[in-house]
Amino acid sequence: MKIILDMKNVFYSLAILSIMALGFSSCSDDDTQNFNLNISGLEDLGSDAAYEGWLIVDGNAITTGVFSVDANGNLSSNSFEVNSADLESASTFVLTVEPIPDNDPGPSDVHILAGDFSGSSANLSIGHPAALANDFSSSSGTYILATPTDMDDSNEASGIWFLDNSSGAPEAGLSLPTLPAGWAYEGWAVIDGTPVSTGTFISASGADDSAPFSGPSSGPPYPGEDFLQNAPNGLSFPTDLTGGTAVISIEPVPDNSPAPFVLKPLVGGIPNSASVHTAIDMGQNLSFPSGLQIKKM
After folding, report:
1. Distance (Å) of CA 107 to CA 66, 102, 147, 181
2. Which of 43, 164, 192, 223, by CA, is between 20 and 30 Å from 116?
């Protein structure tokens, strides 16, 4: 009889444990919640960088997960599971660009999109203070064609300098907002369909960071480049930039791509009839990532 009673106790105990386990499982499920991320306009970052989402809760950044974007702009995942309490308490969502591998558990300085929650959703933009903090709608640009780094006057259409000489004296040709940490501007000339960098810079009132194609003389103290030597494969220098395109992009730091990033606030076609040493205006290109909303499920 004692054995039977002990067996009953064993079965009873197992039943209680099973019920408790089911209860804990249910609580665990209730502690997480999914939300959808709906973004268009992001670009493929390659194999050594990825996007990562973050919830800002009481000033702390809590990851929502990492995803990539393919060549067509499709997200590798647009549904993410997070802690319910964190999601309900979050004030802001931030999207960053992170290196691969990533040894830092916190967000990088490269904040591309952000938005504050209003009810169950957050509209994301580059203009949010937690992203680039500007919509670049006041940006403007002017450049000239010239090759001041050599003594040859026959190739003046082979250089581009982002300066304005229309007043009779050179001055900064770019009006751009100051970028937050994690970002830099970069100038480009698109030559026969190939974008070639003129160098990165922080201020439009100083020289950029490199001059790999320029001649032996110093250039003016503004962003720009003479395309005179060391031409990339498929191109020949000196060249003729007319008929090409001038671009100012906003690049992540560090930058893993030899091509312009998706953020290009200033773009201008270089007229076929462009005169050298003459100021040419650029146009705004505010086609930034759009349709940006996350929604709590």
Report:
1. 11, 10, 42, 12
2. 43
Is residue 181 a contact partner of residue 109, using CB atoms and an 8 Å limit?
Answer: yes
| Angle, CA of 209, 210 and 211, to the nearest 5° | 145
Cα angle for residues 236, 240, 245 (degrees, 5° grid): 105
**First CA to last CA distance, the chain:** 55
Residue 242 contacts residue 274 (beta carbons within 8 Å): yes
Q: What is the mean pLDDT of the chain?
A: 88
What is the rounded distance in angstroms from the CA atom of residue 237 to the CA atom of residue 159? 10
Q: How far is residue 58's CA from residue 9's CA, in Å, rounded to a whole number?
A: 49
pLDDT in tens, 95-145: 999 999 999 999 999 999 999 998 888 999 999 999 999 999 999 999 999
Contact 189, 244 (CB under 8 A): yes
Q: State how far Cα 5 lies from the chain centre.
A: 69
Q: Output the pTM of the full model.
A: 0.87
Task: State how far the Cα of 170 lies from the Cα of 152, in Å rounded to an integer.
Answer: 20
Q: Which residues contact 271 (CB under 8 A, 6 or more apart)?
A: 242, 243, 280
* Residue 175, token pair as written in the block: 């009006």
CATH 2.60.60 spans which residues of the chain? Answer: 33-133
- Check: CATH 2.40.50 for 33-133? no
Residue 273 in tokens: 């009839």
Which residues contact residue 37 at a Cβ distance below 8 angstroms, ignoring those fewer than 6 apart? 53, 67, 75, 78, 79, 80, 294
